[in-house]
Design goal:
mainly alpha, 5 helices
């Protein structure tokens, strides 16, 4: 065999060896990146699922509190209604005693008023209601009249509404964590599919897509509140 031909064959063999070594290093690099992605996604998936479970629990807790506040508000409002009804009945009796000129009976009715209704009654008398046509029809219509139990009921209803809204927000956070968990699972699926390809370009292309999805989910996860 001529010497020139031997040199040419040796050169081609050397190029093949270098090409094979280059592909081997590239393959190893791709595998390292894939393993890193799998590790990160596995941890992030578990953490995202944990957060979703915690927010679900918080939603249930807040909804339970909101229901409790509603029940307390209903009880306070019922008591306020009973007190106002009793005061109104005694005020009707007071009007009858006033029309009859029975001051002793009037005093008995006034003593039986609740403290807040009595204060409103005294303010109502100052408006000269039996002469002044613009006077309110009764103590309950005075701007100064407030039933403590009704005020408590209003506060509890407001607290229940705010707590319910917080529970709804917790549910939304749980849904977002579930969404991110599903997207993390899609990243695992893409990496698993990429490992089945022998063609480097296809494997790299799928890996790039997986990294893009992972980046999007990671940004979304960082922006979510945590428990």
């Amino acid at each position: 065999m001529p010497e020139g031909m031997n040199v040419e064959v040796a050169h081609k063999l050397s190029e093949q060896e270098m090409s094979g070594a280059h592909r081997g290093r590239w393959h190893e690099l791709v595998e390292v990146v894939e393993v890193a992605i799998l590790a990160v996604v596995a941890v992030a998936t578990a953490w995202s699922g944990l957060q979703a479970a915690k927010w679900d629990g918080r939603q249930s807790l807040l909804y339970g509190r909101a229901s409790s506040y509603r029940f307390q508000a209903d009880a306070a409002s019922t008591l306020a209604g009973l007190q106002l009804s009793a005061d109104a009945s005694m005020f009707t009796g007071w009007l009858q005693a006033h029309a009859a000129g029975d001051t002793q009976l009037q005093a008995i009715y006034v003593r039986r008023f609740t403290p807040d209704y009595r204060d409103a009654y005294e303010a109502w008398l100052k408006t000269d209601p039996f002469v002044n046509p613009a006077a309110p029809p009764g103590p309950a219509f005075m701007p100064s009249y407030h039933n403590p139990n009704q005020d408590k009921a209003n506060q509890l209803n407001a607290l229940a509404a705010a707590t319910f809204d917080a529970g709804t927000a917790a549910r939304d956070n749980a849904d977002k964590y579930v969404r991110d968990t599903v997207l993390f699972a899609s990243v695992l699926f893409l990496v698993a599919i990429a490992q089945r390809f022998k063609a480097h370009r296809a494997r790299v292309a799928i890996g790039v897509i997986a990294i893009g999805v992972l980046t999007f989910v990671a940004i979304s996860l960082i922006q979510l509140p945590r428990l």
